[in-house]
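stage 2 :: seqdesign
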């Protein structure tokens, strides 16, 4: 039951993320929850600006989906957002939610990252839709993103199922015109009724719900055959292409005369429509990026496909598609070759820099984690030796202990994790080490924000998504309850816990030396605290250099504001320098003094 509410009209340029937020709001969504992860982050940051929606950042994607399932069970429409690797974290509740079904509509945004622009892998979330047998919609531009998310809520409630909306980075961040009309649907919450046979997934109930899922799949296949989400576009019948999402746009640009079967619903696939399309063209091709999801399933239907050599990895482009079909490609301008390189680096004054400077000096084996501090792996730091997934640093450090790495290599092993990542999945990793009486050194880098994805709040600073939308800084006093990291670590059973100002080199050195040498046989946790420089934007005058010995030690901390002249003497770029004093602390000769 829905009624008309505030009218939203007009044509605007919106990114896919902005469009999904607008579409969800128009669909009457009541709850939005997720974990920030590029390229999905901006969706909730836009949704929270609307009235009548309660939006939250969760500690991780599993919790986010469980909150969404609970809101749905409570009778309201909920949107859960995450990037592709977050779907891995949320897979446990997903695999049960596909059987329980929903109350209010439940839509999950999965944002994939072909070409690995900001991720640790390149996976295809369509496989999760097929695995869980959950419908997945794939918009090809922002207008479809706004429309598809509204359809997704309807499909969710019609078929009693969670529904995925999949976007890639090209859809998430490219702005295209969106015409928004109509009104927000005021969807009345469904009356809550106890339904243990539906939601209590003990074996006896789960077996029954499994059969319900089978029946639902059959109904969804019938829906896929007739839905306008899947569209045959006949042009030249000599070439037909099956594609979806952003790839559809590339195919239309690269092969404007080709016929296309645009699959807006990538699970389940429509076997009859696929066979109809393939029979209507001389040669049928599948074009997709970074995966053989369509190719494998279309071939399994006995449909013969033409061979085309698109790259197996990374994003596709019109040029790559034309090249695969041996067609002439536009001549691109030659790239400039004399431009200076711009490798990624920690910001000037970053509080992580001195920690990594000391870890490098100690020749530590550093098991790292996901965040800005992953940049400790790049030159000139070269101080991080593994980055696998959120929370892995602490678990892997314990694994190194079990392998006797410190003893065999005569090097300390140190796990390094950020505050937001610690709350996401590092707590249980630490608990595993404590439970098994592990030893070693673990560092939690608390910079008071989730910096890598855009300064979002997290449980450690207590800043909620609503407060972020209202402009509250992570340095302000939040309404949410911030986690006391050190107290939690002690509560888990760690007795050697110290808190250190990460901008104080002497304190950093003393803490790491004590933990790795004096307390090497016990478990030590160091909480390094200092705000991200994008949060605390205070500046001091740039230090002055006098009598530089050209030893190069200051340059080795990797500050973008530091360099050297042709003779090797240190120079400071006053436009980038924020006056943090890190270079003065590491200079062994006292050649760098306070600014004036």
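stage 2 :: out
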């Amino acid at each position: 039951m829905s009624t008309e509410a505030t009218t939203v009209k007009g044509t605007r340029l919106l990114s896919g993320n902005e469009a999904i937020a607008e579409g969800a709001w128009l669909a009457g969504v009541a709850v939005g929850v997720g974990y920030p992860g590029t390229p999905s982050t901006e969706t909730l940051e836009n949704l929270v600006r609307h009235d009548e929606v309660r939006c939250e950042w969760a500690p991780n994607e599993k919790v986010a989906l469980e909150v969404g399932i609970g809101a749905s069970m409570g009778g309201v429409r909920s949107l859960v957002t995450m990037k592709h690797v977050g779907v891995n974290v949320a897979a446990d509740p997903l695999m049960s939610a596909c059987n329980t079904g929903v109350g209010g509509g439940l839509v999950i945004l999965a944002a994939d990252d072909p070409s690995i622009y900001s991720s640790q892998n390149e996976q295809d979330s369509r496989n999760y839709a097929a695995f869980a047998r959950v419908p997945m919609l794939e918009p090809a531009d922002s207008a479809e993103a706004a429309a598809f998310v509204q359809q997704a809520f309807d499909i969710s409630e019609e078929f009693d199922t969670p529904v995925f909306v999949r976007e890639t980075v090209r859809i998430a961040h490219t702005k295209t015109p969106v015409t928004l009309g109509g009104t927000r649907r005021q969807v009345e919450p469904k009356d809550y009724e106890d339904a243990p046979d539906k939601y209590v997934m003990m074996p006896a109930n789960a077996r029954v719900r499994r059969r319900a899922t089978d029946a639902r799949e059959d109904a969804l296949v019938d829906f896929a055959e007739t839905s306008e989400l899947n569209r045959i576009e006949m042009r030249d019948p000599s070439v037909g292409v099956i594609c979806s999402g952003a790839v559809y746009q590339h195919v239309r640009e690269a092969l404007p005369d080709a016929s296309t079967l645009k699959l807006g619903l990538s699970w389940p696939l429509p076997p009859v429509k696929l066979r109809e399309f393939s029979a209507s063209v001389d040669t049928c091709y599948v074009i997709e990026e970074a995966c053989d999801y369509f190719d494998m399933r279309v071939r399994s239907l006995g449909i013969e496909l033409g061979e085309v050599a698109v790259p197996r990895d990374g994003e596709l482009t019109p040029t790559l598609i034309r090249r695969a079909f041996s067609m002439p490609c536009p001549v691109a301008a030659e790239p400039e070759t004399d431009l200076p390189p711009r490798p990624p680096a920690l910001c000037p004054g970053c509080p992580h820099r001195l920690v990594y400077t000391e870890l490098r000096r100690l020749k530590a084996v550093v098991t790292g984690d996901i965040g800005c501090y992953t940049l400790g792996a790049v030159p000139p730091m070269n101080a991080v030796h593994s980055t696998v997934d959120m929370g892995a640093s602490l678990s892997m450090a314990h694994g190194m202990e079990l392998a006797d790495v410190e003893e065999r290599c005569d090097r300390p092993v140190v796990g390094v994790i950020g505050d937001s990542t610690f709350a996401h999945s590092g707590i249980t990793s630490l608990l595993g080490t404590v439970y098994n009486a592990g030893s070693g050194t673990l560092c939690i880098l608390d910079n008071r924000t989730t910096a890598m994805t855009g300064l979002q709040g997290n449980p450690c600073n207590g800043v909620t998504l609503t407060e972020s939308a209202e402009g509250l800084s992570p340095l302000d006093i939040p309404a949410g309850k911030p986690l006391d990291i050190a107290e939690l670590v002690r509560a888990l059973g760690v007795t050697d816990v110290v808190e250190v100002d990460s901008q104080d080199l002497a304190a950093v050195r003393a803490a790491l030396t004590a933990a790795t040498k004096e307390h090497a046989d016990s478990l030590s946790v160091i909480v390094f605290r200092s705000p991200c420089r994008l949060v605390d934007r205070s500046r001091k005058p740039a230090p002055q250099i006098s009598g530089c010995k050209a030893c190069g030690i200051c340059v080795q901390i990797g500050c973008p504001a530091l360099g050297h002249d042709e003779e090797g003497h240190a120079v400071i770029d006053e436009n980038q320098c924020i006056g943090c004093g890190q270079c003065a602390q590491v200079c062994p000769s006292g050649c760098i003094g306070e600014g004036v």
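stage 3 :: structure notes
- The chain has 21 helices and 24 strands.
- Residues 203-226 form the longest helix (24 residues).
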